[in-house]
Write a structure and sequence with these properties.
It is a single chain. It is built from 14 helices and twelve strands. The chain is of the alpha/beta class and 485 residues long. The protein folds into two domains: 153 residues, Aspartate Aminotransferase, domain 1 (Alpha-Beta Complex); 247 residues, Aspartate Aminotransferase, domain 2, CATH 3.40.640.10. The chain has a seven-stranded mixed beta sheet with strand order 2-8-7-6-5-3-4, sandwiched between helices. It has a five-stranded mixed beta sheet with strand order 1-11-12-10-9. Helix 10 links the parallel strand 5 and strand 6. Helix 6 packs across helix 11 and helix 9 packs parallel to helix 10. The termini are far apart. Bound molecules: pyridoxal-5'-phosphate. The site of pyridoxal-5'-phosphate has 14 residues, from helix 6. Keywords: Lyase. Its EC number is 4.1.1.28. This is Aromatic-L-amino-acid decarboxylase.
């Protein structure tokens, strides 16, 4: 179709919809079939492969002026994009803490994209689906019906927002006009040295700065030392500062440690502090009868940040913030504006809206893939799958303990195993082993530093990972270690 020339009206039927729906439909069916094959056949491919220089170079072309056929674009996608992802759908992927997703979740994403609705709010069923998830999340964590929840990108954002809610609960409504001018400069937050770096980033983003975050020591299992926490709070009060927030961990990023959440709740109750939990992956342990007792106390938190896209296996991204005091949550973010007027009827009814609980205005339909996932598998099966990843971690731990060439660097508490090959120049050798493992395509663990020593870190999150993947990782590490040391 010719574009309208300047000064003339566009043709009435000039849209971006296809002229020939049947061709696009056939193309779409092919894409869907191919993507099922891509997921079903994932084990046959390497976990990861390096991007050839010419492939990377293709993606430096000029801004396209004229459109090309979708079939051609799809060919480019199949040849040059799909083979070169990070590989976290692969059973051999054990790096960082990434979920594997499911084909069911993929279908829900496709449906959500088709609806293309903005879940900022308004009187529509997608908002009700998100409210349904809020209700389920309250049940999961034993929170009251007055608690609120909202989907966000991931736990980094949910942590920032949790800190902002705690900030406005302490300072009061004036914080929204005067920022930290009134009392903010004296406010202090506490977390352990083992928490994720996004907590410090959030303190920075919330205007406190990272100096206002006290990093409390941990025990040998990386759980916060609550006596040291109490002592630090007392010292800060004595110095004229104002403690306001404790951030506990339900699954630390390095080794999966769970703080004593009930003890943290005790400290926060006595000291009148807000208790926020970073439960990025570990919080969903509440679905496992085996892990849930170790999360005791989580039901008393003021707010919890976690991801459905990690242990919940919902496709990226699906972060979530749950807040006990829903009204405080709304007061922190709701921003009345004439163009967001609420009504009691029509499309602008149904207030409050999800955007009243978030920094985001435009919001995709993350709730749909989460709703599909929870309904398709149920919490029992998801809980059993979470247990299985922990059982695999324990098997790997036992194998390492029985192998004199390997050394365990931290106790295994959930689904994360940190170990290394014994060698003279062990940091170099093990970093080299990890990179070579990636390049081999056999397995993709990541690396971290524990007590100044480089560890190979296998975080078993993917529901597709099985015993043979653990064995493949073990033998590849031993073989590479023997070659490189
Ligand atoms: C304990 C912990 N907190 C926070 C995060 C950040 O979560 P996200 O990547 O969803 O922002 C992670 C990521 O792995 C994590 O493990």
């Amino acid at each position: 179709m010719k574009p309208a020339s300047r000064g003339t009206l566009p043709e009435v039927d000039e849209t971006l919809d296809p002229e020939d729906w049947d061709t696009l439909r056939a193309e779409g069916h092919r894409m869907l079939d191919d993507m099922f094959d891509h997921i079903a056949g994932v084990r046959e491919r390497p976990v990861w492969r390096p991007i050839p220089a010419e492939t990377r170079a293709r993606f430096r072309e000029d801004l396209p002026r004229d459109g090309v056929d979708v079939a051609d674009i799809y060919r480019e996608f199949s040849e040059h994009i799909a083979p070169y992802t990070a590989g976290n759908i692969h059973p051999g992927f054990m790096g960082w803490v990434n979920g594997g997703g499911t084909a069911v979740g993929m279908l829900a994403e496709m449906l959500a994209a088709g609806l293309n609705t903005n879940v900022a709010g308004r009187n529509q069923m997608p908002v009700e689906v998100e409210r349904q998830i809020v209700l389920w999340v309250r049940r999961m964590f034993g929170f009251p019906d007055t608690a609120s929840g909202v989907f966000v990108t991931g736990t980094s954002m949910a942590n920032l927002m949790g800190i902002l809610v705690a900030r406005s609960a302490r300072i009061g409504p004036s914080v929204r006009q005067r920022g930290l001018l009134d009392r903010g400069a004296r406010l202090i937050a506490y977390t352990s040295v083992a928490t994720h770096g996004c907590i410090a980033q959030a303190m920075d983003g919330a205007g406190f700065g990272t100096d206002a975050l006290r990093r409390i020591p941990v025990d040998r299992c990386h759980r916060i030392d609550t006596d040291a926490l109490r002592a630090r709070i007392a010292a800060d009060r004595a110095a004229g500062l104002e403690p306001f927030l404790v951030i506990g961990s339900a699954g630390t990023v390095d080794i999966g440690a769970i703080d004593d959440l009930a003890a943290l709740h005790g400290v926060c109750r006595d000291e009148k502090l807000w208790l926020h939990i970073d439960g990025a992956f570990g919080a969903l342990g509440v679905l496992s009868p085996e892990i849930a007792p170790r999360l005791a106390g989580i039901e008393s938190a003021d707010s919890i940040a976690f991801d459905f896209h990690k242990w919940g296996q919902v496709p990226y991204d699906a972060g979530f913030l749950l807040v006990r005091d829903g009204e405080q949550h709304r007061r922190t973010f709701a921003a009345p504006a004439a163009y967001l007027r609420r009504e009691t009827r029509g499309l602008a009814a149904g207030s409050p809206w999800p955007c009243d609980y978030s920094l985001d205005m435009s919001r995709g339909f993350r709730a749909l893939k989460t709703w599909f996932t929870l309904k398709a598998y149920g919490t029992e099966r998801l809980g059993a799958m979470i247990d299985r990843t922990c059982a695999l971690a324990r098997c790997l731990e036992a194998k390492i303990a029985a192998e004199p060439k390997l050394e365990l660097l931290a106790p295994v508490q959930l689904n994360i195993v940190c170990f290394r090959y014994r060698a003279d120049d062990a940091d170099r050798v093990n970093a080299d082993i990890v990179a070579s493992l990636h390049e081999s395509g056999i397995a993709a663990p990541s690396a971290t530093m524990l007590d100044g020593r480089l560890a190979i870190r296998a975080a078993i999150v993917n529901h597709r990972t099985g015993m043979r993947d653990i064995e493949a990782l073990m033998s590849a590490v031993l073989e590479l270690g023997a070659r490189k040391s």
